[in-house]
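User: I'm writing a short methods note and want a consistent example. For Major facilitator superfamily (MFS) profile domain-containing protein, I'll paste the sequence; you return only the structure tokens, no commentary, since I'll be parsing the reply automatically.
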Amino acid sequence: MGRGDSAEQQAAAAAAPLLEKTSAAAEAEASEAGGGYYYVDGCPGCAVDRHKAANPGIPYANFLYVWIVTLCTALPISSLFPFLYFMIRDLGVAKRTEDIGFYAGFVGASFMFGRCLTSTAWGIAADRIGRKPVVVFGISSVVVFNTLFGLSVNYWMAIATRFLLGALNGLLGPIKAYAIEVCRPEHEALALSLVSTAWGIGLIIGPALGGYLAQPAENFPTVFSTDSIFGRFPYFLPCLCTSIFAAVVLISCIWMPETLHKHKVHENRSQNIEALEAHLIDSKEKVEESGSLDTKKSLLRNWPLMSSIIVYCIFSFHDMAYTEVFSLWAESDKKYGGLSLSSEDVGQVLAISGASLLVYQLFLYPSINKVLGPIKSSRIAAILCIPILFAYPYMTYLSDPGLSIILNIASVIKNNLAVTIITGTFILQNNAVPQDQRGAANGLSMTGMSFFKALAPAGAGIVFSWAQKRQHAFFFPGDQMVFFLLNIVELVGLLFTFKPFLAVPEQLDSR
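Assistant:
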């Protein structure tokens, strides 16, 4: 008998007790659940899988957690933009009025810069200790540092609190992984659409909240005294409201179920006995060939994941730049190609767009994704965005009520198309990796996205200021150049959704 035969016999002998023990346990579970799956007692991930197997419907309670946690992390990001100009002015750091925008840009970018540095680490932590602990810690950071930002007494305190808010807020990556782990495969599109919807609504309602509630002693003198805390800290009220909402979400997370498996089987759905036997045999062969049981694919070498992250970053850059440009363009004077709208008018447009996102994602997007799939729907959405953006500069020639109607329709369509694209990239990313890499994968995507979103506001502001100075240029004068460049970014993102650049996960390749 050769040494190879002896090794095979030893491996078979070592595997036999495990197979027998596992088979007995699995048979008991299969007879109980009727699904032929292997669950481990005491594992929270298996408990969720067991519940999904027994309840084929939509998990509304768990989806509510997805919704409120995502909204909690989105609200603080953009709620400061309506009052940031005045906040920087009042802090006295800018020597000239022309310098206010310069200092405001660093405050706006500090959140994304902090999140860029830590998103991957939070994703890895979510894969190690669970989704729930990371979510709870992230919400706690919103309560603390968002409140402190509203109480900032100098410029550097504002910078530091925003940076720490971004660095310690690792919510979005783990909650995307959590969203598809609490539901069955047929509901994954709805789960991720809830993430992108809550995110989009938070980024739209946030500025409306900041615009209406900032400087309450000036805007509502009969309610708020100038001697009160809201008079001494005029930008504290919108931050406090967001923090109170976060505190309520934090308390509700006590009942939030954990989805991460606490044993060696880390698949999204539990493996049956035949799969386990095949895995043991395959592992034995790989030990003989390479001497290692670690066959996990590196995230950076996972091209379906990395290509979808790159596409996600491009469209995220576009969306953040569009958000910055839209408010600047709508509020600028008509002689510069703007619409001369007030901050209240812009807030109303954004609020209507936010409400439409909720209706679209709950009732329309799941059917669209079922028919077209995430890739085709993203391509169609990107194509439709281009003529809409080209039409924006010509709205300056309209007057009310036509202007209001057309602007609201365009904003609703543009924001829903943008969410369609982002949701499609979420689906691609989460189907490109197994469960035990999903938190790290989403953390990696958040790192890239945060970097691009940190660049977008500064870049958009510089381009907008430059365009305002070329009102009589021959090639795309004034704001036409701004929207032309936005369309260039959109076109690049569209091209990157095609092969050979975008590699589609096997389970989605047919779509």
